[in-house]
């Protein structure tokens, strides 16, 4: 676990030195959500209908925006190979980097969700469901995305391929997350959808670091 915290601390220090990596996904998320009311009109009825899709499509695209650099800089400067030669498990290093990615992209989205809920005309109950869906769902985006990054890290222009690999795997997350918000809007219980999303997160936490480590070994070798 000492390696985990060292890698996490390193990633956070690098990110705060390059603050654009933190601001850009958050700014993109806010901008996308802000543009939708301008395009479909200010009527609260329409905004509330489209709010689940608006929020989660924007969150998905914001996560994709910062995924490509998850391992790319380490690969270019050679530190990724050094991490692969460390006596500690590579999957633990991967988990630390993915956790740092979530802290820098997922957590800011959750913190900004109250403002976006007001913008889209959502009440307190629906906002709570939205925040819960983001809290449980955004780690899955980072974990699944890490596998795609591991497979494409050695490619010069792997961004398009990364999108093609990862986007179909994001569909179940999108379905259950928007289902949580829609159920809250109708005043219905959403514990079933939330439980499914939590189960997906646990499976991703258990399997994605090992799959990513294997993908990195294949790509680097």
From TrEMBL:
One Pfam family of this chain: CcmB
TM region(s), chain numbering: 21-43, 49-71, 92-120, 126-153, 160-182, 194-216
Entry's localization field: Cell inner membrane
InterPro entries in the record: Cyt_c_biogenesis_CcmB (IPR003544), Cyt_c_CcmB_bac (IPR026031)
Keyword Transmembrane helix in record: yes
Principal location: membrane
Bilayer disposition of the protein: Multi-pass membrane protein
Highest taxon of source: Bacteria
Keyword terms, alphabetized: Cell inner membrane, Cell membrane, Cytochrome c-type biogenesis, Membrane, Transmembrane, Transmembrane helix, Transport
NCBIfam families: ccmB
Function: Required for the export of heme to the periplasm for the biogenesis of c-type cytochromes.
Family: Belongs to the CcmB/CycW/HelB family.
Name this protein carries in UniProt: Heme exporter protein B
Source organism of this protein record: Vibrio stylophorae
Lineage: Bacteria, Pseudomonadati, Pseudomonadota, Gammaproteobacteria, Vibrionales
């Amino acid at each position: 676990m000492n390696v985990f915290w060292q890698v996490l601390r390193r990633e956070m220090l690098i990110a705060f030195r390059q603050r654009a990596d933190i601001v850009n996904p958050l700014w993109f998320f806010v901008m996308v959500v802000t543009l939708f009311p301008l395009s479909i009109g200010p009527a609260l009825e329409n905004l509330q209908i489209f709010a689940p899709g608006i929020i989660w499509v924007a969150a998905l695209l914001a996560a994709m925006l910062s995924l490509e650099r998850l391992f790319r800089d380490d690969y270019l400067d050679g530190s990724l190979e050094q991490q692969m030669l460390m006596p500690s498990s590579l999957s633990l290093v991967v988990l630390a980097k993915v956790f740092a990615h979530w802290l820098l992209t997922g957590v800011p989205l959750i913190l900004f969700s109250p403002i976006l809920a007001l913008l889209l005309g959502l009440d307190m109950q629906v906002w709570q469901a939205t925040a819960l869906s983001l809290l449980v769902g955004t780690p899955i985006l980072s974990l699944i995305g890490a596998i795609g990054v591991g497979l494409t890290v050695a490619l010069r222009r792997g961004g398009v391929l990364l999108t093609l690999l990862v986007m179909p795997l994001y569909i179940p997350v999108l379905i259950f997350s928007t289902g949580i918000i829609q159920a809250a809007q109708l005043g219905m219980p959403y514990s079933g959808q939330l439980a499914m999303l939590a189960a997906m997160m646990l499976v991703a936490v258990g399997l994605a670091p090992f799959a990513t480590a294997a993908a990195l070994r294949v790509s680097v070798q």
